[in-house]
Design goal:
The radius of gyration is 26 Å and the shape is globular. Strands 1, 2, 6, 7, 8, 9 and 20 form a 7-stranded mixed beta sheet that branches. The chain has a 6-stranded antiparallel beta sheet with strand order 14-15-16-17-13-18, with no helix packed on it. The protein has a 4-stranded antiparallel beta sheet with strand order 11-10-19-12, with no helix packed on it. The chain is of the alpha+beta class. It starts with a strand and ends with a helix. Helix 2 packs parallel to helix 9, helix 3 crosses helix 4 and helix 15 crosses helix 16. It has 21 helices and 22 strands. It has 4 domains: 304 residues, FAD/NAD(P)-binding domain, CATH 3.50.50.60; 136 residues, Elongation Factor Tu (Ef-tu), domain 3 (Beta Barrel); 98 residues, Arc Repressor Mutant, subunit A (Orthogonal Bundle), CATH 1.10.10; 53 residues, GidA associated domain, C-terminal subdomain (DNA polymerase, domain 1). It binds flavin-adenine dinucleotide. The site of flavin-adenine dinucleotide has 35 residues, from helix 1, strand 2, strand 12 and helix 9.
Length: 620
């Protein structure tokens, strides 16, 4: 008898099991293959635009995706540095094998987690509440709550040209039984697809003709616990498809499961296959490809941008027409996979299903795509499963405090009609939800529930205090022209004629706080006396100073919306009686059952005037 059973040790399941166990639940993690814990099914990389922010949020909350990424990192880059700080996004290439091993170590080091290698094929349900699971080996386990995180495995079918295999990933069995049981219980079950490129033999790549892409020289990291930046030296390489490659690929279309109607599931718009790309962007005669190392100690490379389910022969012939890959050998072919998902509008904001009490869903089965999106949901489902098992309140994050909040709110209130991937454009409060301040946004909250432990909490408090001290110094310190004018001239900035507060210099768009500290001795001494990482402090303060206008405006809007948005809609509210609500609005409100005014306002089809009617009604 467990508090929480987690089914599947992918990215969602690993975070879920870890969070629930840290909070004190007795957890059983059941997964098909214990050598594939947190396996990176597709590219060996974590983070990227908006996804990097999610990893840092998971870390700030006390999850492990960031720490494991740091431990397995072979290259770090901060993407979008040339854009505003809302867009800066950390990304890491990881050693796929070490990533999985490090996750296993994290989970095994937690005494509250038991493991069982097996496939769950039935849920045990009693009086509309989950009671446990039954496995393929016929073993029954009982628990107060269950978190399902089956990823791409439920009724998975793999396609390579005309070849069709049953599987959850290549060389792995599919999961069977759960979808049909859920369907019989009245759940909606849908079908999606995704794809992955071939992995190739690095010894057969001609690197001499390829463009090298190095990591950031200064390095970087994901976890707020890491004091030093990690510098690594593994490069990626860039090459391009060409007209000949496209012609070869087109030859295979007749045997393509995508184009001959075999694949019915909807694919990810933002990770299209190469065949999709040459059809959708037929005017382009080349597409960029990134060759990414699979690890530090392997010769295997991943071809980012070349996902394909075309016949193996076509894949190989096309690849050999690409510059640098003329003699390439394939280790594993690209393939597409179709799998079941459960439309997430069937969930509460805690990720518990509305139909079956104490049953939670997280990750790819909710119609998302990506390790980061899965990890974020897993963490939240793990927390909420623990809370439910212990009669504690739901733990929900709002849209103005995290990307994870945006993700879950979008899933539950809007649903998905294609694999959902996070983007900065999905968040209305981008400048608040930056990668540098996830700890300031979330760690105290996670500490309150017992997930972010002492050290993490102390570090963020120290960071906040030290930032305040630095800003106070900048506000108080008056700088003389002779102390700063040479520096200003060097930076092509207008010189000062009389004393000014240092903060006014720091706020100038072209002035770097780090360079300013190198110029003003007492400022440098103050930063060096701080225990937080000096670069992190100056980066974070610089963003807050230079973007203070935008940040304030977003905060005001968020406060206003959250004041109204938090108003709860009582259960059993009869929308049919509210005749002033539009017909579309009423249908959507009845089907989505929002729990707050905020959620109601984000449902497509519910207009601002519908919300006004609702507010008047609730006020009454
Ligand atoms: C071929 C392929 C291509 C992909 N391409 C992309 C891409 O381009 N971009 C992108 O962002 N993401 C891509 N992904 C998706 C990415 O891998 C997932 O988003 C992510 O891994 C989801 O995490 P998860 O934890 O939900 O599920 P998974 O990582 O799939 O983990 C599921 C886990 O559950 C276990 N499991 C399943 N069923 C059972 C059961 N019944 N009993 C016990 N254990 C079970 C499995 O063994 C596995 O360990 C791709 C995935 C695949 C397979």
């Amino acid at each position: 008898m467990y508090d929480v059973i987690v089914v599947g040790a992918g990215h969602a399941g690993s975070e879920a099991a870890s969070a629930a166990a840290i909070l004190g639940s007795k957890v059983l993690l059941i997964t098909m293959d214990m050598t594939k814990i947190a396996q990176m099914s597709c590219n060996p990389a974590m983070g990227g635009i908006a996804k990097g922010q999610i990893i840092r949020e998971i870390d700030a909350l006390g999850g492990f995706s960031g720490i494991v990424t740091d431990r397995s990192m072979i290259q770090f880059r901060m993407l979008n540095r040339s854009k505003g700080p809302a867009m800066w996004s950390p990304r890491a290439q990881c050693d796929r094998f070490i990533f999985s091993l490090e996750w296993r170590k994290v989970l095994e080091s937690n005494k509250n987690i038991d493991f069982w290698q097996d496939s769950v094929n039935e849920l045990i349900i009693k009086r509309k509440a989950i009671a446990g699971v039954r496995t393929r080996l016929g073993v029954e386990f009982f628990s107060k709550t269950v978190v399902l995180t089956n990823g791409t495995f439920e009724n998975g079918i793999i396609h390579i040209g005309k070849t069709k295999l049953k599987g959850g990933r290549i060389s792995e069995s599919p999961s069977k039984g759960i979808s049909s049981q859920l369907y019989d219980l009245g759940f909606e079950v849908g079908r999606m697809k995704t794809g992955t490129p071939a992995r190739i033999d690095g010894r057969t790549i001609n690197f001499n003709v390829l463009e090298e892409q190095k990591g950031d020289i200064e390095g970087g990291n994901f976890s707020f616990l890491a004091r030093e930046k990690i510098t690594t030296n593994k490069s990626c390489y860039i090459t391009y498809t060409n007209k000949k490659v496209h012609d070869v690929l087109k030859e295979g279309f007749q045997d393509s499961p995508l184009y001959n109607g075999t694949i019915k599931g909807i694919g990810p718009r933002y990770c299209p296959s190469i065949e999709d790309k040459i059809v959708t962007f037929s005017e382009r005669d080349k597409h960029q490809l990134f060759l990414e190392p699979e690890g530090e100690n392997t010769i295997e490379y991943y071809i980012n941008g070349f996902a394909s389910s075309l016949p193996l022969k076509t894949q190989l012939k096309a690849l050999r027409n690409i510059s640098g890959l003329e003699k390439v050998n394939i280790f594993r072919p690209g393939y597409a996979i179709e799998y079941d998902y459960y439309p997430p509008t069937q969930l509460r904001y805690s990720l518990e299903t509305r139909k079956i009490k104490n049953l939670f869903f997280a990750g790819q089965i909710n119609g998302t795509t990506g390790y980061e999106e899965a990890g974020g949901q897993g963490l939240m489902a793990g927390i909420n499963a623990h809370n439910r098992a212990n009669n504690l309140e739901e733990f929900i994050l709002n849209r103005d405090e995290s990307y994870i909040g945006v993700l879950i709110d979008d899933l539950v209130s809007k649903g998905v009609d294609e694999p959902y991937r996070m983007f900065t454009s999905r968040a209305e409060y981008r400048i608040l939800l930056r990668q540098d301040n996830c700890d300031e946004r979330l760690t105290r909250k996670a500490h309150e529930i017992g997930l972010a432990k002492g050290n993490r909490y102390d570090l963020v408090n120290k960071k906040i205090r030290e930032k305040e001290a630095i800003i106070k110094f900048l506000e108080d310190y008056s700088i003389e022209p002779q102390e700063i004018n040479i520096f200003l001239e060097k930076n092509r900035e207008s010189v000062i004629k009389q004393k000014v507060k240092l903060i006014d210099i720091a706020k100038r768009p072209q002035i770097s706080l780090k360079e300013l500290s190198d110029t003003v001795n007492s400022f440098k001494q103050l930063i060096e006396s701080m225990s937080s990482n000096a670069d992190d402090l100056t980066e974070s303060i610089e963003i807050e100073l230079k973007y203070s206008g935008y940040i304030e405006r977003e905060k005001q809007i968020a406060n206003k919306i959250s004041r109204l948005g938090r108003i709860k809609i009582y259960k059993g509210l009869d929308y049919n009686k509210m005749t002033s609500i539009s017909t579309e609005g009423r249908q959507k409100l009845i089907s989505k059952k929002p729990e707050t005014i905020g959620q109601a306002s984000r449902i497509p089809g519910v207009s601002p005037s519908d919300i006004s009617v609702l507010l008047v009604h609730i006020g009454r």
